[in-house]
Amino acid sequence: MDRLRTCIVGIGFVGAAHIEALRRLGNVEICAVCTRENAQQTADAYGVMRGYEDFRQMLDEEKPDVVHICTPNDSHYEIAMYAMQRGIAVVCEKPLSRTLEEARALAHYAKTHNIVTAVNFNCRFYPQILEAKSLVESGALGNIRTISGGYLQDWLFQETDYSWRLEPEVSGESRAFADIGSHWIDIAETVTGLRATEVFADFETFLPSRKKPLKPVASFSGVALKQEDYQEIPITTEDYCTALFRFENGAIGNCTVSQMHAGRKNQIQLSLSGSKSSLFWDSDNSNELWLGYREQFNQTAIKDPTLLSPLARTAIAYPGGHVEGYPDTFKQAFRAMYGAIAAKDTSKHVFADFSDGYRKMAIVDAVVKSAKSGGWVKIEEA
Ligand code: SOE
Question: How many Å apart are CA 284 and CA 266, to the nearest integer?
Fold first, then answer.
């Protein structure tokens, strides 16, 4: 097994998830982390040798095989370009960038310079999502007619809930769709193998202003501060998005995305109906896949490697009955990505690369344009 050296930029909620998943792979040495403040202290806290406050210095001194970008969206482009120009493979958090132009340039550079890249669309690596993909590929569903579902969360429900994702200069013009709707359209396209061609989207911002904490508060921490520790700021990005899609084969789709749906912590659902049968998957019950029929009893496919397809088995580490979930999707995604990085293999794999990251940004861009214009918008060919 090839041993690869890795550096991580950004140690928030998701940077920590990357470290944990990489350690579970067994063949990755996390040599350094980069964060703007208290870098060595942070490195020590994660049991990593060195901490840097400047990502350029880290990449120049450590010369890693791979860099993971776990920072806010506005720095993805700069870090990814700097790494690729030094021949370093990049694993970037989604969405790939803050703007469509940045994503286009990153995908172009990766392609023309043969750099192995990846975007962490981790939901592809739920075993039942890969099982759904195998079923669609086998023709079991017939022609896909409808693709529906959505992604609901409540971590931005209160006016004191705050994150850099609420600031368009950092996050981009879309918030809820770019952050979590992008996961939904990613699994919809991955499972069906179909591309969305146009979109009609509607946005709503339920809280036009929020209280920004003047002291640091980590995402999902649930920490509340005193009145005087908040500053009132206007919110211009969407809390909620409904979108209709048309797919290349004529299938129609719709999704509902919200970061203010009380009680729904982090639920993504996908429902497909075809000319032969249907399927439904829910991340809150991620080890099961519902299969629906007209002429026979419905079925539930459970996560059991002895029963599932070869493709689904590639993302399973434990026997049936031993539940695998969200952190396992990171491990399985990184396992697939590191296989390609070790082999310097830039061909298409199950994981998303920068061309897929660009594709998703083209969809985000069309969603924003549609919400602004109030009409159907064609998705840029990416
Ligand atoms: C916040 O909405 C977030 O952390 C997303 O950015 C992740 O992609 C998702 O997995 C969980 O929620």
Answer: 8
**173 band by pLDDT with thresholds 50, 70 and 90:** very high
Enter the pTM of the model: 0.97
Amino acid at 315: A
CA of 141 to the centre of ligand 1 (A): 30
Q: Are residues 116 and 146 in the same domain?
A: no
Instruction: Report the CATH number at residue 320.
Output: 3.30.360.10
Q: Return the pLDDT at 37.
A: 93
Nearest CA to ligand 1 atom 11: 266
d(CA 120, CA 95): 9
Is the pLDDT reported for residue 139 higher than 80?
yes
Question: Is the bond into 95 cis (omega within 30 degrees of 0)?
Answer: yes
**What separation in Å is there between the alpha carbon of 179 and the centre of ligand 1?**
7
Atom of ligand 1 nearest to the CA of 259: 2
Q: What are the C-alpha distances in Å from 307 to residues 162, 214, 233, 303, 324?
A: 44, 52, 52, 8, 16
Q: What are phi and psi of 111, to 5 degrees?
A: -70, -45
Question: What pLDDT score does 25 carry?
Answer: 97
Q: What is the CA(94)–ligand 1 centre distance, in A?
A: 9
Domain check: are 190 and 250 in the same one? yes
Range of the domain at 194: 127-324
Which of the listed residues 121, 161, 266, 330 should we mutate to test ligand 1's pocket, taking the one with most ligand atoms within 8 A of CB? Answer: 266
Q: Whose CA is nearest to atom 9 of ligand 1?
A: 180
The total of structural domains in the chain comes to 2
